[in-house]
Amino acid sequence: MNFDPPPSIATLSRFRKIGIIGVPPLEVIRGANEHGLLIHDLDEPLVREDLEAASPFLPRVYCAILRTAVVNALHLELDAIYADTGPGKCDCALHTATILAEALPIPVIRTRNMDSVAFGTPLCQARLPLIERMLAITAGVKSAAPYQNQPPPCAPTAGFWGVPPRDFSILGLFPETTHLYGWARCMENKTPADHDLEARFNPEVPTVFFAQSFCAKTALARYLAKKHPHALYLDVDVHTTSSARAKVQAFLELSGVKS
Question: Please, what is the average pLDDT of the chain?
Fold first, then answer.
């Protein structure tokens, strides 16, 4: 399947509000920033609608992130959607974009993010609440500007490897000295297709390897967790269950990690 040609600045100037799925190329984000477009990250829960609203379009075995993107796309007033459907996202995103293009009266533009210029990962290594840092990383997708006022790095006591969860509450269980790895680190670096960076972890610190249920990255999460000397593999669907919370809490406590 062919990808849509990169949008020109003139094309973006026709829009006021766009949605993004995954991490579109910097060319898209930079053009949107230059024209003052409002960018909605459709991977995040933005509307008060049940995920079942996505069922006519996606099977339930699709991850909660893509089902959330569909629900947002159906209920937000948007002029266009830009979806990363290259190696920085997944084939399921490609199929989701194809389905949305048929279902919506707006352009759904498939992009392929192969950006390789590293912006750095200061938030992944800073001493700050993990929820606060993950919120900043996901918000950073909507800007093409270099990072300013980077926080200093800290020595890690724990690790969180994986994607930004749909339910950020699980991140509240981790200490401020947790380092972020996996696709979340690729997001901050603005290189979502950098698989070498995604596969890195620190074997010296207890690490939770996380992925959304039904996401293709569950295979990599479990594989790396088996290689890590002190790891917990975990996948969560829509919400963080009490069982998932208990597993993380027990793992961190038994690992001697202080909150």
Answer: 94
